[in-house]
Structure formats: C-alpha cells, structure tokens
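From the methods appendix. Each design record in this collection lists the tokenized structure first, followed by the designed amino acid sequence. Records were kept in a plain field format so they could be parsed without special tools. The example shown here is representative of the layout used throughout.

RECORD:
FOLD TOKENS (281 positions):
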C-alpha cells in the first residue's frame, strides 16, 4: 500500500494555471512514496514547458507508462527519453502498431505513435517492459494490461483502424490503466479508457478483490457516448462509491455536464496544472 500519492496533470486539453499550455493530449506525473512515474506523454508540445512552469523535473524518472499507442499519449516520449535517467518503459506490444482514424470527409488520418517515439523505444532496449497482463511496477502500483471487454454498451469510442484504407478495425488491445492502492482506497488513472470505464473498473476490482474505488481520473472517451452509456457509466461509478471523479482529455462536454449534474462536488476540475493528493506527502 502507498502511504502518500500525488498526481499532477502536466498535459490536458485545457489549463488550470496561468502560464501553462494546453493541447489535445494527456500526461500525469505520479509521485508515490518517492517513486516517480510519468503516465503518458501528451503530443509532446507542452509537456516539458508545463513541467518546468510548475517546478518539476522529468529527469531520473523511475518509470514511464504508455496507456495506448495514439499520438496524443506518446508524442512526448522521445523528448523525455533524451533527459538524464534510465526509466523502465511500460506499454502493450500493440501500442507500436500503425493506427488510423476514419475521417468524415477526405482520407484517413494517421494517429499512431510518432516515428521518433518508436525509435526511442528501440534504443531503450531492455528497459522496455511489454504489458499484456496485469503488471506490478512496485508494490501498490499496478497496470491492468489488457482489459476484458464484457459490457455490451462499451466500444472503443470511435472509428479506429489498423490500416489507412480503414478496413481493419483497431480493437485497441493496447489500452490499459494504472491503479494505486492507497490508505483511502484505489486510485485509478485512465488514459482514454478505450476498453470502457465500466470494463476497466470492473477488471481492477476483480483483480484487487475490492468492491469500491476511491478516485477515477483521466480520459474516459465518452465524447460520442449515448445517454444510455452515460447512465450505465454513472451507475457504475455510484456502485463503486467513487468519491473523487476527475475526468479530462477525451471525456467530452456532454459527459462532463452529466457527471457534474449526477455527482456534484465529487467531480473535480482537471486541466494542466491540476493536482490531486491522497494520504501523507
């Protein structure tokens, strides 16, 4: 169990503090009892600027976690790996695959990991840890690995494909989440939850044999979710007794409004510069 946990949002679609920059992307600095990990790296346009602006160094990290292989979560990886230090890098093997999104008009868009990030991973060699299954980074800090897809309302959240012709759907098997076991309960950090928020939290609770989660934060990819799916997600968060709900990045305005209306003060604002602390520092 982790005694003290601090989450700092370094990259998000909006900002919380003056002097910081926003981009369509996500990155959290996770500090837990002296263990420092970076969860995702955003597009790479704002990460180091925002870290410096908040007085944080990303040198000598213990670990880097990639939630999945989209550009808005991997774009800053090469830049971070050029900094002093030799962090372990955790990601699913499918995160390095080519990935595309179908456009309403015109050609498809390449949305996978940028080439500099792929090259940096190759150069990292034995420091890369492939995470198909649940993986412990250190006691009390774990990754889900692949999340079982059981809930009938949950899909990957968009028209995602493995080929430029958009003929082969991308199941986004690389989607994974982080959880931290703290004195107040489970803190779950999502990248985009392409596996579904319900599927992810159910998997975490099955694995830990717990009924509740204390905090859920990160991207939920409910941008295009139906009302039925929003209600199901809200119902699950209620049953899991989540006390801190801090959705950001790809959640979407409709889902943000829904969560605020349903859970009121349990919903916390995100944006680059937001910080969440649990337990002793």
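DESIGN:
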């Amino acid at each position: 169990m982790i005694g003290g946990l601090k989450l700092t949002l370094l990259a998000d679609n909006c900002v919380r503090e003056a002097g910081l920059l926003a981009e369509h992307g996500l990155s959290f600095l996770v500090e837990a009892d002296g263990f420092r990990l970076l969860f995702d790296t955003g597009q790479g346009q704002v990460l180091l600027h925002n870290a410096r602006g908040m007085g944080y160094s990303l040198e000598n990290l213990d670990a880097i976690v990639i939630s999945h292989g989209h550009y808005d979560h991997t774009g800053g990886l090469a830049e971070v790996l050029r900094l002093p230090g030799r962090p372990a890098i955790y990601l699913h093997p499918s995160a390095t695959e080519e990935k595309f999104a179908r456009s309403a008009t015109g050609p498809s868009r390449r949305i996978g990991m940028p080439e500099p990030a792929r090259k940096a991973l190759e150069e990292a060699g034995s420091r890369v840890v492939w995470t198909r299954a649940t993986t412990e980074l250190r006691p009390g800090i774990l990754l889900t690995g692949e999340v079982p897809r059981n809930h009938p309302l949950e899909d990957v959240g968009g028209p995602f494909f493995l080929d430029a012709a958009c003929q082969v759907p991308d199941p986004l098997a690389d989607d994974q989440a982080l959880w931290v076991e703290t004195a107040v309960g489970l803190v779950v950090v999502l990248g985009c939850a392409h596996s579904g928020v319900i599927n992810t939290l159910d998997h975490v609770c099955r694995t830990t044999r717990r009924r509740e989660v204390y905090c859920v934060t990160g991207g939920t990819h409910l941008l295009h979710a139906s009302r039925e799916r929003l209600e199901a997600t809200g119902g699950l968060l209620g049953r899991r007794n989540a006390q801190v709900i801090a959705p950001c990045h790809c959640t979407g305005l409709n889902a943000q409004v829904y969560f605020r209306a349903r859970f009121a003060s349990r919903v916390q604002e995100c944006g680059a510069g937001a910080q969440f602390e649990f337990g002793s520092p």
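APPENDIX NOTE: The CA atoms of residues 82 and 168 lie 34 Å apart.
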